[in-house]
């Protein structure tokens, strides 16, 4: 398989992710969490197993579209190469998990068999209280509010969230996909993948700390800007210190990776706190995640083979993308602050007019956006 085929396989995964995210979110509203999650797990496991049996680049592209240290020692076991065993080990356990999910996971408290009536009522009340004014359901008995679907695509604030997400996730996917390639100059082939493990561990810790701090202070924009700034600093160091030795390159890569890794959960939390209405919120999350995955398709273009081993051009592109996301973050915060101030000083007539909107969601004048 040529490097071009491999790059297409990587890009098609993110392309299909973007295409099916919004229809999948709408399907969730019709099927309910139990059926939807079970079906997703079974299909995910089946497609992953199918990747173990591809014979050429065309088959890989098809299966990739629908969708390792230990496996190195499984070469030729059962007549299968180690990379085929990787997909089998990843995919086979997921299928029975999907069946178990359908049997034991309830969509709402009333459908759970192992809760008594008092516990079901308590959980239902907690969910209703947590939903609040901005998440009132449509008066009809339908599962899906098409009015709220329309709200998603006419709310300009959601597009600002999406623009930030595309930038951050593009950089995140670039680093995740090509991290072994970026680490090649630091060590030999056998140690490259082992060197990526500490980066993932440190990034996970940073992600948890950033999320905890944001939750405690009920503040998202400055936390997000801080993480994006850390990522930008990492890329600046990667550009300027590429000839200063392996330690400097490794540390700067870790800084960039931690910043980009921690930013996306903060952004997703910020979005869900500021989008009201069950249908609107669910579709907004799907829209953001789906569009953000388009950034992953840029990875083969950002780090081409002819730019190795320094990848200076790729680092400059990623740093520029992060800088744009950082600027949009401050623009979005300022817009939300201005809207909060506007709602405070609404005249009585204007307040009644905006409050009378059918299914106002987060547009209700009593709602204040989290900054």
UniProtKB/TrEMBL annotation:
Main location: membrane
Keywords: Membrane, Transmembrane, Transmembrane helix, Transport
InterPro entries in alphabetical order: MFS, MFS_trans_sf
Compartments, record wording: Membrane
Domain of life: Eukaryota
GO molecular function: transmembrane transporter activity
Pfam families: MFS_1
Transmembrane segments: 12-30, 36-54, 85-105, 192-212, 224-242, 248-271, 283-302, 314-336
Topology versus the membrane: Multi-pass membrane protein
Gene3D superfamilies: MFS general substrate transporter like domains (1.20.1250.20)
One of the record's GO cellular component terms: membrane
PANTHER family: PERMEASE-RELATED, TRANSPORTER, PUTATIVE (AFU_ORTHOLOGUE AFUA_6G08340)-RELATED
Protein name: Uncharacterized protein
Classification lineage: Eukaryota, Metazoa, Spiralia, Gnathifera, Rotifera
């Amino acid at each position: 398989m040529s490097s071009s085929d491999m790059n297409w396989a990587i890009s098609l995964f993110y392309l299909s992710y973007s295409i099916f995210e919004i229809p999948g979110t709408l399907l969730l509203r019709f099927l309910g969490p139990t059926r939807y999650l079970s079906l997703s797990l079974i299909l995910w496991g089946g497609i992953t197993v199918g990747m173990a049996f591809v014979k050429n680049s065309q088959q890989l592209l098809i299966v990739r579209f629908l969708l390792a240290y230990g496996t190195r020692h499984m070469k030729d076991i059962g007549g299968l190469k180690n990379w085929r065993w990787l997909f089998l080990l990843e995919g086979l356990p997921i299928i029975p998990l999907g069946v178990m999910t359908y049997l034991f996971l309830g969509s709402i408290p009333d459908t759970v068999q192992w809760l008594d009536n008092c516990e079901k009522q308590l959980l239902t009340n907690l969910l209703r209280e947590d939903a609040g004014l901005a998440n009132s359901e449509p008066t009809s008995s339908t599962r899906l509010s098409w009015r709220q679907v329309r709200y998603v695509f006419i709310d300009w604030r959601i597009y600002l969230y999406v623009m930030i997400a595309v930038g951050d996730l593009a950089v995140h996917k670039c680093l995740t996909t090509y991290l072994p390639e970026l680490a090649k100059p630091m060590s030999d082939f056998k140690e490259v993948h082992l060197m990526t493990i500490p980066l993932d561990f440190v990034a996970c810790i940073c992600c948890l700390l950033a999320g905890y701090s944001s939750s405690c202070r009920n503040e998202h924009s400055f936390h997000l800007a801080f993480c994006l700034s850390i990522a930008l600093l990492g890329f600046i160091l990667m550009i300027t210190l590429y000839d200063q030795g392996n330690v400097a390159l490794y540390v700067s890569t870790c800084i960039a990776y931690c910043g980009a890794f921690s930013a996306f959960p903060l952004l997703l939390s910020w979005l869900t706190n500021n989008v009201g209405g069950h249908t609107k919120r669910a579709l907004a999350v799907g829209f953001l995640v789906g569009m953000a995955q388009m950034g992953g398709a840029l990875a083969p273009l950002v780090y081409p083979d002819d730019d190795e081993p320094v990848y200076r051009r790729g680092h400059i592109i990623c740093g520029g993308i992060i800088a744009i996301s950082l600027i949009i973050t401050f623009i979005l915060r300022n817009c939300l602050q201005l809207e909060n101030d506007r709602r405070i000083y609404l005249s009585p007539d204007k307040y009644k007019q905006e409050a009378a909107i059918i299914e106002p969601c987060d547009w209700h004048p009593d709602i204040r956006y989290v900054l």
